[in-house]
């Protein structure tokens, strides 16, 4: 089994309303984590994204693929996990 590690973290401010899309919020937090870890998007080998309302709030059910592309992590497996709070 391969060893994996969390080597960087990022988050966006918690707020009720925002003008940003969920993909923009993800990208902002993801780039903070990538930069903190001193990595580049091409170093990312897979993406796992938790999202339960993208298809309702933004009309986009495949947010994981768009999120991967938005941070420059092209051609990687991207998986969306759904779950309510």
UniProtKB/TrEMBL annotation:
<protein>
    <recommendedName>
        <fullName>Thiolase N-terminal domain-containing protein</fullName>
    </recommendedName>
</protein>
<dbReference type="InterPro" id="IPR020616">
    <property type="entry name" value="Thiolase_N"/>
</dbReference>
<dbReference type="GO" id="GO:0016747">
    <property type="term" value="F:acyltransferase activity, transferring groups other than amino-acyl groups"/>
</dbReference>
<dbReference type="InterPro" id="IPR016039">
    <property type="entry name" value="Thiolase-like"/>
</dbReference>
<dbReference type="Pfam" id="PF00108">
    <property type="entry name" value="Thiolase_N"/>
</dbReference>
<feature type="domain" description="Thiolase N-terminal">
    <location>
        <begin position="4"/>
        <end position="85"/>
    </location>
</feature>
